[in-house]
């Protein structure tokens, strides 16, 4: 199928983008992103839609997504300022707004709008990963504190575990955006497995009270319906980082004991020097994921406070960099102003923690 718009031709059979007679080099993910936007041009496409379709639900930061969107715009002679073809719909997502007609070797009618709706729906669902790596989803840990204001804390625990697992080359880890669609919902493990294409599901709960925290976690094998591993941790609040590492190690040991033993696995993390700084970052992430201009401002202020407490806190610096670049993508900030701030924060984050994913994604987006 060929989609023709402006002076471009997007050929899905040859996986080729042309401007006139010139072939335009695009990365595979950028090509898939373009195809998905063009095929779904009759609606606004959300971030979750793109992650599910293009990345099959894998971990994808907003900075990575933004860089691919920018690359897609550049490939079709568009830009974030003009948005003549790929338009950002604030707080909603993206929509391809260019005039498109289709053609194929079978001379499909020019008004054809691409594959049928049910076919598009099937394509948009995350397929079972083709990799032989174990596929795992970490569902949002339930806040058992009885205080809605503590949601950020349980969400933060979940995100830290997702990040730790995603750093391991042995696992295929479902993205935070995909697993968090089940937050607050009573769902069966098999439903999660079918919709996300995973063999293992992690679930748990968090109860925070004073300077103590209780975290329960369990690993489920969906194929057998059994609990592979479960544990409860009653610790001082300051030990929360050690608990997260222990949970990650236990999951690895339960799923891949041979790899765990052979590689002498140890959870690799550089915790902040201050619990207060970590708490501020978790609060900031809670606002960041709401994807509004005001929440973005609040998140950046909280991150600045965390950095003031711990200037070498890699995650705080990395998220700050990503937040500034995402603000430019959403049209909330000027690139000329935000990019230097993001670059400084990202470079500082990498100096503090060379493995921080937020920093690397933000820096790639700046460059």
Report on this structure.
The chain is of the alpha+beta class and 367 residues long. The protein is built from 14 helices and 13 strands. The protein folds into three domains: 2-124, Orthogonal Bundle (Arc Repressor Mutant, subunit A), CATH 1.10.10; 135-262, 3-Layer(aba) Sandwich (Rossmann fold); 275-366, Serine Threonine Protein Phosphatase 5, Tetratricopeptide repeat. Helix content is 46%, strand content 18%. The strands form three sheets. Strands 8, 9, 10, 11, 12 and 13 form a six-stranded mixed beta sheet that branches. Helix 1 packs across helix 3 (62-75). It is globular, with a radius of gyration of 22 Å.
SSE layout:
Layout: E1 2-5, E2 8-11, E3 16-19, E4 22-24, H1 28-39, H2 47-54, H3 62-75, E5 86-89, E6 93-96, E7 101-103, H4 117-124, E8 135-138, E9 142-143, H5 151-166, E10 172-173, H6 176-179, H7 189-196, E11 200-209, E12 212-221, E13 226-236, H8 240-255, H9 257-262, H10 275-288, H11 293-309, H12 314-329, H13 335-352, H14 357-366
Parallel strand pairs: 8-10, 8-11, 9-11
Antiparallel strand pairs: 1-2, 1-7, 2-3, 3-4, 5-6, 11-12, 12-13
Q: Average pLDDT value?
A: 81
| Total strands | 13
CATH architectural label of the largest domain? 3-Layer(aba) Sandwich
Q: What is the CA–CA distance across the termini?
A: 34 Å
Quaternary structure: single chain
Q: What value does the Rg take, in angstroms?
A: 22 Å
CATH class of the largest domain equals Alpha Beta
Major beta sheet summary:
6 strands, mixed
Strand content: 15-25%
Number of helices: 14
Q: Name the shape in a single word.
A: globular
Question: Helix-strand pattern, N to C?
Answer: EEEEHHHEEEHEEHEHHEEEHHHHHHH
What is the structural class?
alpha+beta
| CATH homologous superfamily title of the largest domain | ABC-type transport auxiliary lipoprotein component
Task: Enter the CATH topology name of the largest domain.
Answer: Rossmann fold
Taken together, the total number of domains comes to: 3
Low-confidence stretches: 105-131, 259-268
């Amino acid at each position: 199928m060929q989609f023709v718009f402006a002076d471009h031709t997007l050929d899905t059979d040859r996986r080729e983008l042309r401007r006139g007679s010139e072939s335009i080099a695009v990365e595979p993910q950028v090509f898939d992103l373009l195809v998905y936007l063009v095929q779904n041009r009759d609606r606004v496409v959300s971030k979750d839609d793109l992650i599910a379709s293009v990345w099959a639900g894998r971990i994808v930061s907003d900075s990575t997504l933004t860089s691919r969107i920018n690359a897609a715009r550049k490939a079709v002679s568009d830009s974030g300022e003009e948005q003549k073809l790929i338009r950002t719909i604030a707080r909603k997502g993206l929509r391809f707004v260019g005039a498109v007609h289709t053609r194929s070797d079978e001379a499909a009618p020019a008004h054809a709008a691409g594959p049928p709706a049910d076919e598009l729906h099937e394509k948009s669902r995350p397929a079972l990963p083709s990799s032989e790596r174990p596929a795992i989803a970490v569902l949002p840990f339930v806040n058992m504190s009885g205080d809605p204001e503590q949601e950020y804390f349980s969400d933060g625990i979940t995100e830290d575990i997702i990040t730790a697992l995603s750093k391991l080359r042995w696992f295929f880890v479902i993205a935070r955006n995909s697993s968090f669609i089940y937050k607050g919902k009573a769902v069966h493990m098999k439903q999660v497995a079918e919709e996300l294409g995973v063999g293992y599901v992690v679930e748990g709960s968090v109860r925070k009270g004073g300077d103590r925290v209780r975290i329960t976690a369990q690993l489920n094998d969906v194929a057998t319906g059994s609990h592979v591993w479960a544990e409860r941790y009653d610790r001082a609040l300051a030990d929360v980082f050690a608990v997260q590492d222990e949970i990650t190690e236990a999951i690895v040991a339960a799923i891949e004991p041979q790899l765990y033993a052979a590689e002498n696995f140890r959870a690799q993390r550089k915790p902040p020097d201050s619990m207060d700084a970590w708490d501020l970052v978790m609060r900031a992430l809670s606002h960041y994921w709401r994807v509004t201009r005001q929440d973005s401002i609040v998140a950046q202020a909280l991150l600045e406070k965390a950095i003031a407490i711990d200037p070498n806190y890699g995650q705080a610096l990395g998220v700050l960099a990503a937040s500034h670049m995402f603000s430019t993508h959403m049209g909330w900030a000027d690139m000329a102003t935000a990019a230097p701030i993001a670059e400084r924060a990202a470079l500082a984050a990498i100096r503090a923690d060379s493995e921080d994913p937020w920093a690397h994604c933000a820096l790639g987006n700046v460059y």
